[in-house]
Predict the structure.
Amino acid sequence: MFMIDCGEGTQLQLRRSSIPFTGLRAVFISHPHGDHCFGLLGLISTFGLLGRIRPLSVYAPAEMEELLKKELDYYCNSYDYEVEFHPVDTTQEKVIYEDRSLTVETIPLQHRVPCCGYLFREKPLQPHIRREMIDFYNIPLSQINNIKAGADYTLPDGTVVPNDKLTRPADEPRSYAYCSDTKYMPELAQKVKGVTLLYHESTYADDKTDGATKYFHSTARQAATVARDAEVKKLMIGHFSSRYSDENLLLNQAKEVFPNTILADEQKIVEVE
Amino acid sequence: MFMIDCGEGTQLQLRRSSIPFTGLRAVFISHPHGDHCFGLLGLISTFGLLGRIRPLSVYAPAEMEELLKKELDYYCNSYDYEVEFHPVDTTQEKVIYEDRSLTVETIPLQHRVPCCGYLFREKPLQPHIRREMIDFYNIPLSQINNIKAGADYTLPDGTVVPNDKLTRPADEPRSYAYCSDTKYMPELAQKVKGVTLLYHESTYADDKTDGATKYFHSTARQAATVARDAEVKKLMIGHFSSRYSDENLLLNQAKEVFPNTILADEQKIVEVE
């Protein structure tokens, strides 16, 4: 389990959800503004008070390291687990995390402070085994991994059963790109090309297009333009200015450009599929 | 308006209440544990984003100054108002704040880190004017302040009307003592003698009296003992361990010692009277 950004009150929202604290492996921070990181110390403290042992990785812009380490030294010096800080260069596209099933890349963004998004890519998946064919040919269990890896199977009488008779194609690997906060970046479409789910900030509606540029934020229409140009499967917009009491205004402007758009909301669960 | 301690999410709770942000003049922090101070940066940031101009005073243990200043420099350097830090010596009883209507004194407490409570004392109030007597003697408005200050009034015919015919005694000044976090301190009763309202932490019930001592916290019964020995008017207990699903257990144990006890709760409004 991963977390992206950690505003004030995140630990409370996490407690209200059904997500167990213990599963969290790493937190990725996009930039040092309070609504994206002021919940981090509280989260780390609570983990410590709950007796966490497993290390927690924190990926964040390199310039946050000095202060965060001082804060951890002062407030979180008596816990039984390590917080491993990984400084992130927000100006580079780079794989900063990898495990058996996925990679995470940075996405340089343009905001008022050093800021990057994060792109989660599932690694290529194995093909599905056609169970009925395995049974039909009486193929031993020991051969399943070879077949998943692409091997044909030779029967005792020498007949070769080709791999595509024994498998169905693998699912397409999924991907999730998180882009907040940023001004409109047309070149972002190339970076997030074809992702399964794109989260893109939409602070403003059309009425504040100039304000969006000035404050390095995006409008819903601009977010949808990135989604359309990147041919993503689905767009989720969020980070709405409190000036909009009805967020459907933003949703509708986005949908004019990219119909498969949804609104982010607190505690909302979205499948990446 | 004053705030005492500022845990994570305080700004959210403040927004949910009917209390206007702008009225807050000073925040008093008891000690550098997250549940008492992790909301401070977020509160200060939000004030800045809302365009606050009036300075905000922060009173906190002196040892918090260095880190807090670094945090303010990093996260809150672009706002239009000043945060004035007042380092507090948590080991001394001392008046650290005074204005026209009240004083605030520190109350040294015993916790795992430097910690103090705060005692708010209303200044002596003026007597009430007996309006019907003012009318009866036809006393001009210009004399009201003198009479409130204790003067008699001389009628045009030379008759002296004594002050106690023109006034009713002033209300007793109110006082509020906030004591969290601390182990049981019998000597605290002397310090908070006779206060109108005492808030005293009650982390544990009787079952964890040993744990209370070990972790420098108090039981509900110990809080009530301080209240009884101090002859306070009312006791409010709070800071309950999450191990107690029913806080009435704590309330009842406190009431056995000091009947006029109430439970603190989120968003609860308590009159000091």
Remarks:
- The longest strand of chain B covers residues 102-108.
- Residues 137 and 155 of chain B are 8 Å apart (CA to CA).
- Chain B touches chain A at residues 8-9, 11-12, 32-34, 38-39, 41-42, 45-46, 67, 70-71, 74-75 (CB under 8 Å).
